[in-house]
Structures are given as C-alpha cells and as structure tokens.
Amino acid sequence: xxxxxxARTEAAAAxxxxxxxxxxxxxxxxxxxxxxxxxxLSLAMMSAIEAALDEIAGNPAAxxxxxxxxxxxxxxxxxxxxMRADPDKASHAALFAQCSRMMTRIVRLPKPVIAEVxxxxxxxxxxxxxxxxxxxxxxxxxxxxxxxxxxxxCSTPMVALSRAVGRKHAMEMLLMGEMxxxxxxxxxxxxxxxxxxxxxxxxxxxxxxxxxxKSPLTLRTGKEAFYAQVEMTLDDAYAYASKVMTDNMQTNxxxxxxxxxxxxxxxxxxGR
Length: 272
What we know:
Elements: E1 8-10, E2 18-22, E3 27-32, H1 43-57, E4 64-69, H2 80-85, H3 89-108, E5 113-117, E6 120-122, H4 124-131, E7 134-138, E8 142-144, H5 155-164, H6 167-176, E9 180-181, H7 182-188, E10 193-195, H8 200-212, H9 216-229, H10 234-249, H11 252-262
Parallel strand pairs: 3-4, 4-5, 5-7, 6-8, 7-10
Antiparallel strand pairs: 1-2, 2-3, 8-9
Helix pairs in contact: 1-3, 3-4, 4-5, 5-6, 9-10
C-alpha cells in the first residue's frame, strides 16, 4: 500500500473485522477485513466501521481517509446468511437502520473519504462507494445493485446511488441488476478515476496525501457545506454558501493561505 511505516495502528490483528492505520502524512487507511466473506457487512462489521469512523473523527492526525477492502472484493453488500438466520421484521429494521447510520456517518465525517475499489462492490457495497466523497477503481472492479434479481429491491443503496449518479443511470443499475465494469461506473459518475490494478493503491494514497496537505478546517467546512447545499433550492444554496464563505474568510487559515499565495510561500495551517 505504501512504504511508509504507520505512526499508529488500531485493531491490527489479522482476525479483526476492520483495520485502521493512521500514517504520518495524515492519511487514515480503513480496511474491511472479512476477505473470505467478500467483506460482507454483518452487524458486527458495521459496528466496527462506525467505531473506526468515530476514532478517525476524533483524531486530529487523520486528515483524509482511504476506505479499502482486504482480498479480491471491496464489499459484497449485506451478509445474506446473517439476514436469513434472523428473519424477524424488527431485526431487519434494526439492520437497515444501522446501515443507514453508518453510511450517513461517512457523509458527515468531517474529513474526506476516498473509496479504493479493486474488486466487486455490490448492493450495500456499491452504496458504500456512492457514500464516499471520492472513489478510485481498478480496471478489475465491478459494481452492481442486484437486489432486483433476488426479489429485494436495493432501496437503501438507491439513496446513495441516486445522489452520486444521474437518475437514468441509477435506475438502469437498480432495475436491471447487471454488473457494471469500472469504465461504465466512471461514465456514470460513480467513480472519479479508473486505473490499472497495480496503480490503484498509489493513486488513492497520492490523492489522499494531497487532500491531507490542505487546511483541515477548510476541508471540514467545505465537505459539510457541499452536502448541505445540494439539498437546497438555488437561492437558498447561494445564501447559505455566501455565509459559509464569509465565515471562512475570517479564519486564520484563510488569512494564512491568501498571504502565503501572495508571498509565494508554502502556507502553515493552524486548523483555525
């Protein structure tokens, strides 16, 4: 992944559900670690992801996040065996509520998240990609919302997917349930870049390092503002964004950034 030694590793044991590595360059790498189950989102896995996101949110050393899957799959979606083992309606309601909370946690995390997709991302796994701020796919990656093939429409993945791609493309994926290759996902707008498998990690880590080099205050402000304004009317969005930018202009980092640009020097961020 990188030749840089992590400054700190959380849950690094091989039998844990996720691994969290925070590097000296400000990049947190969150790895889904159920390769034998194609990183299916069991209840325990989702709880582990939420805990890791909370850890990242509270760690000022983590300024950008790479989300990846161990093994050949990124994430195959929900654990269907677990879902069928407890068919009670209340259990299913609790599962989907937890999944929705986890996905929303990614969107509201005050740090940018990049999905690194090397293999399949299906159903809730595709939802996971769509929930991230950016996504990079290897040419080997495949994407699908195939619930319709099982008699179970991908309704919760639809929420993230319909906000990441155009309506016609979202409906094509949801209604047909077919696997889309990486180039199709790029054309739909689900991923930002498609690269060779051997370049995947370097590409995502390079993007994450570049983002992590920016003012953490500015990143937090911008991410929050982006998702807030896309749900507003045009007039409300401009009014809201104008206030955000006015407030942003008063921060130390904005003053430092502008002065550094004018003085042709590198800025020194204070995060305030």
